[in-house]
C-alpha cells in the first residue's frame, strides 16, 4: 500500500544560464518581454545544469523526502534521458514500476534559458509525455491512500477515468492541474473536480478557470469553494498563498531568502502542502512547510535540488499564517 502516487509528466531538464542573454521589451510577445540572443553569434554559456523535472517526478520527490511511501506514473522514451529519470527516482526510493517506456517518441525534454537575473524562458518538447493514456495506468495494481494528479496534458478522458476510479476506491485526490487541463473550462471541469480533496492553482490559473478577474480574490474563492468540496489553494508566486478549507481563509507570504531560479516552485509548494496535510492534518503547518519547500527550491537551479528532507527544514523560518 502506497501513501501517495503521483501521476503526470516526467522530463529531462537542462538549465542554461548565459550572461549574454538579454531581456528586452517586446510588444509582440505575450508577456511584453523577450529573451534575446544575437542572431548568428556563438554565445558563451556561463552555467549549465542537467537535471530532471515534470510534475509527477517533482512531486513524488517531495513525498519520498518527507518519508511517504510513494510511486510515480509517467511515460518516458526508451532512451538515455528516460533511463536517467528512472535512475534519479529510484535513488529517492520512489517506486518506478508503473513508469512505462515507449519507443515511438523520445522522453519529454526542456531547455530552460536563464538570464543573469534568474528570469527564464522554457523550450519544451512534450515527447512521450504527450501520449500518456488510460492504457498506461494499471488501475488494478494501484493500492494507495492518496493520488496526486499533476498535468495530464489536457487528456480529459484520462482525468475523468482517474478521478472516478479513485473516488470509487475511496482514494483521496490532490491536484495541481496544468494549463491544458484548465483550458477545458469550469463547466467541464467543475463536475469532474467536484469531490477532490485538495486543488492547487496559481492566481492566473484560478482567474482563468473561474472567469473572474485576477484581483477579485474573494469572488474567485467563492466560486472555487462552490465548485469543489475539498481544500482550495491559490498560489501567488513571490506574494505567497491563500488557502480555503471552507471554514477559514489562510494567508501567508514568503520568507526573505535568496531566489536563483524558480522552476519547480509550484510543484514544491503543492507537494509540500499535501505531504504535511497527510502527515499531520494541520493546514497551517502544511502552508508553512509548503512555503519552506518552495523557497528552498527557488534557491537552486532545477525543480528537485532544493526539495527539503524529512525533519530538515534547514534555515527556513516558518512564515506567519494569518487566519480569517
Ligand atoms: N520568486 C519566488 N520567490 C519566493 N517564493 C516563490 C517564488 N516563486 C514562487 N514561490 C513560492 O512558491 C509558491 C508557488 O509559486 P507560484 O505561485 O509561482 O506557482 P506556479 O505558478 O504554479 O509555479 P510553476 O511555474 O512552478 O508551475 C508560492 O506561493 C511561493 O510560496
Ligand atoms: Mg504551476
TrEMBL record:
UniProt xrefs under PROSITE patterns: PFKB_KINASES_1
UniProt keyword annotations, A-Z: Kinase, Transferase
Gene Ontology MF terms: kinase activity
Ubl conjugation listed as a keyword: no
One Pfam short name: PfkB
Superkingdom assignment: Bacteria
Keyword Protein biosynthesis: no
Domain Carbohydrate kinase PfkB: residue ranges: 41-305
Record family assignment: Belongs to the carbohydrate kinase PfkB family.
Record protein name field: Carbohydrate kinase PfkB domain-containing protein
Organism: Candidatus Yanofskybacteria bacterium CG10_big_fil_rev_8_21_14_0_10_46_23
Amino acid at each position: 500500500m502506497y501513501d501517495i502516487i503521483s501521476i503526470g509528466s516526467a522530463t529531462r531538464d537542462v538549465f542554461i544560464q548565459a550572461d549574454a542573454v538579454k531581456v528586452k521589451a517586446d510588444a509582440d510577445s505575450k508577456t511584453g518581454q523577450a529573451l534575446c540572443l544575437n542572431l548568428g553569434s556563438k554565445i558563451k554559456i556561463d552555467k549549465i545544469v542537467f537535471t530532471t523535472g515534470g510534475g509527477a517526478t517533482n512531486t513524488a520527490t517531495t513525498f519520498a523526502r518527507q518519508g511517504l511511501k510513494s510511486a510515480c506514473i509517467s511515460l518516458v522514451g526508451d532512451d538515455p534521458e528516460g533511463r536517467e529519470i528512472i535512475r534519479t527516482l529510484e535513488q529517492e526510493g520512489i517506486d518506478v514500476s508503473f513508469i512505462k517506456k515507449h519507443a515511438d517518441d523520445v522522453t519529454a525534454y526542456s531547455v530552460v534559458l536563464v538570464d543573469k537575473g534568474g528570469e527564464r524562458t522554457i523550450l519544451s518538447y512534450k515527447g512521450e509525455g504527450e501520449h500518456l493514456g488510460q492504457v498506461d495506468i494499471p488501475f488494478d495494481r494501484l493500492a494507495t491512500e492518496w493520488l496526486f494528479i499533476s498535468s495530464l496534458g489536457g487528456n480529459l478522458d484520462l482525468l475523468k477515468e482517474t478521478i472516478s476510479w479513485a473516488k470509487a476506491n475511496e482514494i483521496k485526490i490532490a491536484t495541481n492541474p496544468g494549463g491544458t487541463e484548465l483550458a477545458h473550462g469550469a463547466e467541464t471541469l467543475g463536475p469532474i473536480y467536484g469531490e477532490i480533496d485538495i486543488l492547487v492553482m496559481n492566481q492566473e490559473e484560478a482567474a482563468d478557470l473561474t472567469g473572474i478577474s485576477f484581483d477579485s480574490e474573494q469572488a474567485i474563492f467563492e466560486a472555487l469553494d462552490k465548485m469543489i468540496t475539498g481544500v482550495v489553494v491559490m498560489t501567488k508566486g513571490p506574494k505567497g498563498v491563500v488557502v480555503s478549507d471552507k471554514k477559514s481563509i489562510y494567508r501567508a507570504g514568503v520568507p526573505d531568502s535568496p531566489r536563483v531560479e524558480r522552476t519547480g516552485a509550484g510543484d514544491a509548494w503543492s507537494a509540500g502542502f499535501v505531504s504535511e496535510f497527510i502527515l499531520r492534518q494541520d493546514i497551517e503547518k502544511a502552508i508553512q512547510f509548503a512555503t519552506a519547500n518552495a523557497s528552498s527550491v527557488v534557491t537552486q537551479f532545477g525543480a528537485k535540488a532544493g526539495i527539503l528532507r524529512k525533519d530538515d527544514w534547514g534555515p527556513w523560518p516558518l512564515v506567519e499564517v494569518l487566519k480569517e
